[in-house]
Every structure is written in C-alpha cells, then in structure tokens.
Amino acid sequence: MYESYYGFSERPFQLSPDQRFFFATSHHQRALSYLQYGLDQGEGFIVITGPIGTGKTTIARNLLANIADEKIVAVQLVTTKLTPDELLELIAAEFKITVTGNSKADLLQSIERFLISLNKQGKRALLLVDEAQNLPAETIEELRMLSNFQLNNKPLIQSFLLGQEELKAIISAPDMEQFRQRIIASAHLKPLNSEEVKNYINHRLTQANCNIEALFTDEAFQLIFEKTLGVPRKINIFVDRLLLFGFLEELEHIDCKAINEVANEMSIELTGSLTNNSLSDDNSHQPLVVNSTENVENMKNVLREVEELLEGSIQQKVKMTRYIDKLLKQKNREYAELQSQTTNND
Questions:
Q1: Sequence-distant (≥ 6) Cβ neighbours of residue 316 within 8 angstroms
Q2: Which stretches make up the AAA+ ATPase domain (predicted)?
Q3: What pLDDT digit, counting tens, does each position of 32-87 carry?
Q4: I need a surface site. Which of 3, 67, 69, 191 has the fewest CB within 10 A?
Q5: Where are the domains of the chain?
Q6: Residues with Cβ < 8 Å from 300, sequence gap 6 or more?
C-alpha cells in the first residue's frame, strides 16, 4: 500500500524470512561461519540458539539458498513437536524416501538404505531442524542415533539444530551428555545494538530500492532501537507500521513524533506487541466476584480499552478513506487531462 508512495519496489519489512533481505551482524556472521564449518566437517551437530525473532530461521534459509555443493542433499524441518517415531516419519517424507513395512525397524532400514545410496553417488544428507526447542529429549536422542549411520567410518547424515533459548537447557541436562559430545560448534544470537538497528533498516530499504534520502532521522533510529529492543522481527513489524502511518499521514520523513504516536497505537493493539508483557496475570484463574469493587473497576478499564481500540480503528478507516478519496480525485484529473489531450489532437 505504501510502496508506491515511498517509491519502493516491494515491501522492505515483510515478516516472512527472505534471504535477499538477510543482514549479517557480527553474531549472525559468526553463526553462519559455524554452519559453514559444520558443512565442511561433514559430521557432528551444529547448534544455533537465540531469543524469538533474532533471525534463526532466516539464517537457515540463507544457508540453504547459498549451498553451492551439489553433493549435499538438504531438507529443513519446521514442525518439531514430535515423538521419535514421528520425527523419523517426517525425515523420510522430506527426503522422499520410500518406506517398505510399517514398523520402526522398517523405517530405520529405509532411511539407512537411502543414506547409503546417497553415499554411493558421492552425496550426503543434511538435516536442518528449526524450532528445535520443541523437540522432546527422547526425540533429540533419536537424532543422535541417526548420526550413528556410517559407511567407511564416515557419517551419512549431519544435523543442524536451531532453537530458542530453552534448547540450551534441554541439551544441558545430565542425560544429554552423549549428544553434547557430538556438538562440534554452537552459537547464540543476540538482538541488534543501536548502530546495527540503523544499518539493518537502511539495508532493507536499499534492497527495496528506496531512493529517498534520510527517510528516517538519526534520532528516529535510536528511538526505534529503544522501542523494539533490537529484535529483528519486532523491527520489521514496527517499521512496516511506521511506513503505513507515514503513507496515511502523507509524511515525507519519519521522525520521533511519528514513532511515539505509532508506538502508542500499537501498545493497545494485538498487532506484533512491542512489549513482553503477558496477556494473563496471577489472578487469571481466580473466580469472578461480580459485586467486587475491584472487578467493577477492572471491567471499566476493559471497556475503556475497547473504546480506545474502536476509536483507533475508526481513525485508521477515516485516514484510509481520505487517501482513497485523494487517489480518486487524482485519477479523475489525469483522466480529464487525457480526454482534453485527445480532443485537442482531434
């Protein structure tokens, strides 16, 4: 919607991971280096962890998109809340392995035959497991068992695990010692610092062919960092909303006033919350006492919030209506000018 107004070739802050917009901070570059090192070694596990929204999936897709080695057959798993048997079934499905029989032994034998056939072709399998913090410990152990498939003392499959911080706790458990000994490298992603936030935003604007000089003021970059805490996904959500706001308000530049106004709007919405506040509290399961003064006051607060949400929604619709009206008037003028030129030519 705002792309044509600001002259973008596409939306620069989409949520879907896109390797074309990948921006490598020092931490992201280190993680990529570890992944590449793991590829070169062809064995063991590489583990990448980090908070929600710091770019783990983007790194995985960037790696897959840039694998030039035709000898590597790679698949990525994104549904990971699986039992060991379900994991094996999903691996077989992703590698398009034909399974003969219905038992787990049949499944394992089919996977092993496939891996051996790859090896005979001079190829090897690479498994990227995203959201690995959802894997039960016994399923992670199943991954370790798969790494035991070898031929001529060379592993037939290699796994990269990418997950949130909870994955570190799972792997650190006492009964995971054998798995830890198979990890050849690990990295932990961090949110961006203030300078990286500025570079990140400018990088994505450049990728979208932005030709507006200083679309954001220097103070704006610092404030965006403070509002998003440097988390890339939050930056995408927030800056996308800022550009929509700038389009509706016909702003040529985004300043701190616009940022604070949008942040206030988003603070009472469900759209990509910029805060880490939980929607529930310790009293969420207590019975409701209708005649409680506290509950009556809570109801009033809820009604006020609903009123503010409705008012904000109405304001956005009014802005949108104004813009559509403006577009229609512009199109009518262009049509009238075209008709006038046609008449003059006749």
A1: 248
A2: 42-211
A3: 888 888 888 888 898 989 888 888 878 877 777 777 678 889 898 987 789 999 99
A4: 69
A5: 26-188, 192-276+295-333
A6: none
Distances (CA, A) of 267 to 9, 92, 280: 30, 44, 16
Say how far apart CA 249 and CA 245 lie, in whole Å: 6
Rounded to whole angstroms, the Cα distance separating 195 from 181 reads 37
CATH architecture of the region 26-188: 3-Layer(aba) Sandwich (3.40)
The tokens for 344 are: 């003059």
124: three-class secondary structure by DSSP? strand
For 98, residues 6+ apart whose C-beta sits below 8 A from its C-beta are 110
Cα–Cα separations (whole angstroms), residue 70 to 32, 74, 93: 19, 10, 21
| pLDDT tens-digit map of 157-205 | 999 999 998 999 889 999 999 999 999 888 888 899 999 999 999 999 9
Report strand pairing: 157-163 vs 124-129.
parallel
- Strand, coil or helix: what is 184? strand
What's the start-to-end Cα distance of the chain, in Å? 37
Element (H, E) at 125: strand 124-129
Which residues is 75 bridged to in the sheet?
127
Record the tokens describing residue 10, joined without a space: 């596409």
Percent of the chain with pLDDT over 70: 81
